[in-house]
Write a structure and sequence with these properties.
alpha+beta; about 25% helix; 5-stranded antiparallel beta sheet; globular
């Protein structure tokens, strides 16, 4: 993800995609290709800027790709020192409890880490008070390839997101039995039907891609999660007379 600091330049995106395709032809892994597909589609732009994934909640001076590199340990400036994740940090992210002692931005992904910046004296990118669990945000970023972007009717769509009551929502399933990574990809892309329960899904949660600072706020965050109601199963009833529907 060193090709840019944010996902907005279609030319840079296409150049990187061409390099990745050449690497695939030479036998490289799909990791870079899957990450590119998760960030955008070169078919969709807004004005002159590439439309980025619905997971990109950054705005203003915040930059998604640069933030992800810093989360991974890259120095924030050329004179800085690398800051690799420690084993203790990963264990906290995986096992808890989360202490929220890190200065890195949570990218809007953790509702517990959000602040009402309109009531504070600092803009988000300069507010360095302990506000995140860095390792947890980094680990979440490594799942982005499971949610590729695609174009639908000249609009960008991101796997896992849906529209409801004029809002964008991110939804994810919780399943009973252990599954493979390929099965997980299929499950995440599966339409939200009640038959998912028959496929081992216990519950589906969702969170809203919400504005901060009011409905027209410049920054977006994920709202606290809630259970997504199962759709009512519609059955086709045949008339007893003549077999008509």
């Amino acid at each position: 993800m060193t090709w840019s600091t944010k996902v907005d330049d279609r030319g840079k995106y296409r150049d990187m995609a061409n390099r990745v395709v050449l690497q695939l032809l030479q036998g490289a892994s799909r990791d870079d290709a899957d990450m590119l597909a998760a960030l955008a589609s070169d078919l969709i732009v807004e004005g002159k800027s590439l439309r980025s994934t619905s997971f990109d909640l950054t705005s203003g001076n915040q930059r998604l790709l640069q933030s992800l590199r810093i989360l991974a340990g890259e120095p924030e400036n050329p004179k800085g020192r690398p800051s690799p994740l420690t084993r203790a940090a990963v264990e906290e992210a995986m096992m808890g409890p989360w202490k929220y002692q890190d200065d890195h931005h949570s990218l809007g992904w953790d509702p517990q880490a959000q602040r009402l910046h309109a009531l504070r004296g600092k803009i988000p990118e300069k507010d360095k008070a302990s506000r995140s669990v860095r390792a947890a945000v980094f680990l979440a970023s490594q799942a982005l390839p499971l949610f590729p972007c695609f174009a639908v009717r000249r609009r960008l769509r991101t796997t896992g997101f849906h529209r409801h009551d004029e809002d964008d929502w991110f939804a994810w399933p919780i399943w009973r039995e252990p599954i493979s990574l390929d099965t997980l990809r299929s499950l995440l892309a599966h339409p939200f039907h009640s038959d998912l329960r028959e496929r081992g899904v216990e519950v589906v949660y969702r969170c809203r891609r919400a504005h901060t600072g009011g409905s027209e706020g410049n920054y977006r965050v994920f709202s606290p999660p809630e259970e997504r109601p199962w759709p009512v199963r519609r059955r086709r009833l045949l008339s007893r007379q003549g077999g008509k529907r």
